[in-house]
Amino acid sequence: MSTRKAEISGALQEVLQRIQRACDLARRSVEEITLIAVTKTFPASDVEILYELGLRNFGENRDQEASLKAPLLPDDAIWHFQGQIQSNKLKSIATWSDVIHSIDQLSHAEKLNSLTSKKDIFIQVGLDQSENRGGVAPENLANLANLVDSINSLSNLNILGLMAVAPLGQEPELAFKRLNEISKKLLTTHPEMAAISAGMSNDFEAAIAHGATHIRIGSQILGVR
Predict the structure, then answer these.
(1) Is 54:74 a contact under the CB 8 Å cutoff?
(2) pLDDT above 70 coverage of the chain, percent
(3) If you average pLDDT over every residue of the chain, what do you get?
(4) Is the domain defined by 3-222 classed in CATH 3.40.50.300?
(5) Nearest CA-CA partner of 124 in 89, 96, 132
(6) Alanine racemase N-terminal domain spans which residues (predicted)?
(7) CB contact at 8 A, 36 and 215
(8) By three-state DSSP, how is residue 68 classified?
(9) Which of 36, 48, 126, 145 maximizes the CB count within 10 A of its CB?
């Protein structure tokens, strides 16, 4: 085993053990969790190592970088776009991504709908509007529900659920609890939106405790660039 493969394998096993412990504490099954390895800024060779180690879900937030990596992996690799969307990049993003986590505008959804035959998406909720991270303001649930209804009318998009990033400088527990509460309210009228994309390298245990189904982990697996 190469030094890099051994390094990644060891880090991955540690993360998987932490996911298992977090699930045990939350009385959840580890099968409920989709681990997305965030591979932005890392070479395709690292993604290939992760694939060899059994991972199939990979996350990127730069179209220019991901569009070069994605074709190098086998067809059963699942690619997640989680960066802020620029309208002029959507056509390219639609060609390589399987799941888009950062839809927060109807105009982007409508354009994506015209570019694809079928695409899974998450609607991004902006838990801190003072940060330029995108996302629908969560204060008005009716607005969020209206956006969901409008996107549901687009035949080529399938909403999996909500996505959010914990605000900087705040307890992630509080952020993920709030996201889970918003998700539960939406579920009363939109039962198909059961997934929650939340939690990254430094806070994924808190996200699992509050219902996350998709966690996005980069540095804890691949290191810091």
Answers:
(1) no
(2) 98
(3) 94
(4) no
(5) 132
(6) 16-224
(7) yes
(8) helix
(9) 36
Q: What is the pLDDT of residue 128?
A: 77
As a whole number of angstroms, the distance between CA 114 and CA 94 comes to 10
With 0-12 CB in 10 A as exposed, 13-18 as middle and 19+ as buried, what is 42? Answer: buried
Question: Nearest 5°: CA angle at 115, between 75 and 95?
Answer: 30
Contact 104, 81 (CB under 8 A): no
Q: What confidence tens digit (pLDDT) does each residue in 78-107 have?
A: 999 999 999 999 999 999 999 999 999 999
* Residue 43, number of CB atoms within 10 A of its CB: 13
Q: Which of 195, 208, 165 is nearest to 18 (CA)?
A: 208
Query: Is the CB of residue 147 less than 8 Å from the CB of residue 122?
Result: no
Between the two ends of the chain, the Cα-to-Cα distance in Å is 22
Report which of 42, 43, 37, 35 is spatially closest to residue 207, judged by C-alpha positions.
35
pLDDT in tens, 11-59: 999 999 999 999 999 999 999 999 999 999 999 999 999 999 999 999 9
> Would you put residue 73 in left (φ > 0), alpha (ψ -120 to 50) or beta?
beta
